[in-house]
Design a protein that fits this description.
Shape: globular
Number of domains: 1
Strand content: under 5%
Low-confidence stretches: none
Distance between the termini: 20 Å
Order of helices and strands: EHHHHHHE
Strand order of the largest sheet: 1-2
Length: 136
C-alpha cells in the first residue's frame, strides 16, 4: 500500500461497472479497502479484502450488505472528523444492497458510486492528503 488515494469520478465507477458487468467492482472494492485503511488505519470490517471477498462469495453476497454498511459507517466517521456535513449513507447503502437481489445486482453499482463520492469528499477535505487524480 503506497498511501496514495486516487480520486475517481463516481459516474465513471458506475459506467465501468455496467460495461464490465460488475467485474470492475472487484478492483474498486480492493482499492477502497486499501484507501480506507490508509486513511483510518483499519479496513471497514477489520478483515482483509480477500477474507471479506471470500465471505461474500460463500454467503451469496449477503456478507456484501454488511461490508457496504461498514464502508458507509467508516466514510461517515471520516467525514465527521473532517467537518464535512453529509447525510448518513448507511440506510441507502443497505437498502440498495437489499434491492440488488431484485435488480440483478445493478443497485450495487449505485452504492459504489455513492461511496466513491463520499471518499472523494473526505480526500478533498483532508489537510495533507496524498492524492492522485486517477485514470477515471
Amino acid at each position: 500500500m503506497n498511501g496514495t488515494i486516487e480520486r475517481r469520478d463516481p459516474g465513471m465507477v458506475l459506467l465501468i461497472s455496467f460495461v464490465t458487468c460488475g467485474l470492475y467492482l472487484i478492483y474498486w472494492y480492493w482499492k477502497m479497502y486499501e484507501e480506507l485503511e490508509s486513511l483510518a488505519g483499519v479496513s471497514p470490517t477489520g478483515n482483509s479484502f480477500v477474507l471479506d471477498f471470500m465471505l461474500v462469495i460463500v454467503t451469496c453476497s449477503l456478507w456484501g450488505i454488511w461490508v457496504d454498511y461498514k464502508i458507509s459507517m467508516q466514510l461517515n466517521e471520516l467525514q465527521s472528523e473532517r467537518g464535512i456535513l453529509a447525510p448518513d449513507s448507511t440506510t441507502i447503502a443497505v437498502g440498495l444492497d437489499a434491492l440488488a437481489y431484485i435488480s440483478g445486482f445493478v443497485c450495487n453499482y449505485i452504492t459504489s458510486a455513492i461511496h466513491q463520492d463520499q471518499l472523494n469528499k473526505v480526500v478533498k477535505a483532508a489537510p495533507t492528503s496524498n492524492t492522485s487524480p486517477g485514470p477515471f
